[in-house]
Here is the input.
Amino acid sequence: MTTTKAILGLTAIAGVAFAGQAQAEELRLLTWGGYAPESVIEQFKAETGIDVKVTKSNNEDMISKLRATGGGGFDLAQPSQDRISAAQAEHRIYKAMDLSQIDGNQFIGSMLEATKGNTTYKGDVYGVPHVWGTSGLVLNTATASSVKDYTDLCNDAVAGKVSYRLKRPTLIGFAFSMGLDPFAAYDDKAKYQEIMGKVEEKLISCKPNVKTYWEGGDSLLNLVRSGEVVAAMAWDTGGWKLNNDNADVTFVAPKSGALGWIDTFVLPKKTKNEAGAYKWINFVMRPEIAAQITAAAGNFTASKGADQFAEDKLKAQFQASFPQADLDNIKWYPTVPPGLETIEGKVLDRVKAASSN
Amino acid sequence: MSSAEIAVSGTEQRSVIPTLKLGTFLLMLPLLLWLLLLIILPHVDLLIVSLREVLGYREYAFSLQNYAEFFTEPLYWNTFVRTAVMSILATIITLIVGFPVSYYIAKVMKGRKRNLLFIMCLIPFWVSELVRTFGWMILLRESGVLSSFIQWIGLVDGPVEFLYTDATLMVGLVYTSMLFMVVPLVSVLDTLDDSLIEAAYDLGGNTVSILREIVIPHAMPGIASGCIVVFMLTLGNYLTPTLLGGKDSLWFTEQIYNQFITRFNWESGSAFGFLLLFLSSAIVFVGLKLSRQTLADTVK
Here is the structure.
């Protein structure tokens, strides 16, 4: 009698434990701030029962994290499309996508095709697009209206009130505004080195104008908000966020063209919940969900029809910053070939170490 | 080591040694495991990584190129020299500021007031380094507290920027490492018998000669250990130079971080890590030799 009871009890406990385990399915997402808002995570959980655990990161950090674990620790990651095939070739940290699991009709067709093309390595596709945006100039139009392009940041009119990052977008942006084409030299290391040499000279001569090189997005927002910086190179969303507080500050596409990036979905090599990852991708690409992410991150997504759900204010800000000509002039990052980052790294170090006086 | 020697010289040497060894070994096991798994093994791995050269995708060859690069590219060498000089300077300033404070706490103050002062030195370290550094940024930035204050009292007309200079960086470094100088100094000055100082006065010594002949020689082990800790902490500091240093200041740890995280160049990052370890150890060694101290004295 007692043994039967005990066995029954054990079975019940085991059953509960098993059910608990089944319920605790989780998806470990390595992403950027704002790409997985709390409300979207809750709706996803209500629909599929999957818990989403978010780790916020950036491109370099994502690759470093996945490299350290050989592609483990996360089930889905979101690096930019230009940083996928080279990282895959060098570190083997991703897993090819099974495109049949993804509802391609939810994507803006041209963007999906372009991303597939850019993230193909040895015939396999590794990424699909999610969020896209640009970097360009964030200006206080009342005091820095003379700035039309990156090189104008070196003008005397804005001396001491300028900030930009010491990262590769700055090098690429300055190269374009100096009339050079770094993307065309991507496959020619010697040519690229020459272009970067010119950019290095320019950045060093521009150094006295710079107040500080910003690191995190928040520190830049503070610098502009307090009026200590009136012209900066930054992301479009930063400019629009500041525009909400101060109508004079906004994002301006530089004359030589804003730089366009697309953040993607990729599967880390040791993903433990591939099915959950596909579910999440299909879920967040629904227009009404994508609009919620746009509202949180400030950037538009590759989801077809999500514009209709976007806030009017953001749409107005976007149209003010991007007249059709500027939109057509966006320079999209091509895939980074190996070796270029070493060249860029040395240029950035030399600029940082150069004396500004 | 010393307990083993005592056991050897004792009478029951045969029966004592084996049990003592096993006991000591077991007691030391956590430490040994910690050293082996978390310090030695990762360093061996880093050493191997630092000694290879990337030829192409997933192709590596043995090479000393990463080390050679440090010495041939003036950028890296200059960064290291700058970091080392700034760290030595920060250590000296910390010592000059910290010594009177420690002397006051250890010798002049008594009882509860003494504890209170000591705790006041400690309290800033209850918040994280990041928060303390942001505190300095709020005080010193162009639209910050100090700039507003000197405008308000009429010393200057426009806002003044105090941030992003080497002087600010130095203030931040000294502030961050003050406690690590004060604690060893207080404990070493505590052991100095007051009657020695009184006797010196009786024998006609003055403040300067007593300080030079009695207090400083006695405090030397504390000064040395404080200086080593402060120097190493400053050299390895990442946060303060990055946040306060501004556009001209490239700190060597920042360089290592860049190599690892933003350039994916683990090979040269590891090489720089090792060079930092060796070069900073060499500086400490030279410092000990110059001050005629031994490492054993400083940990007494």
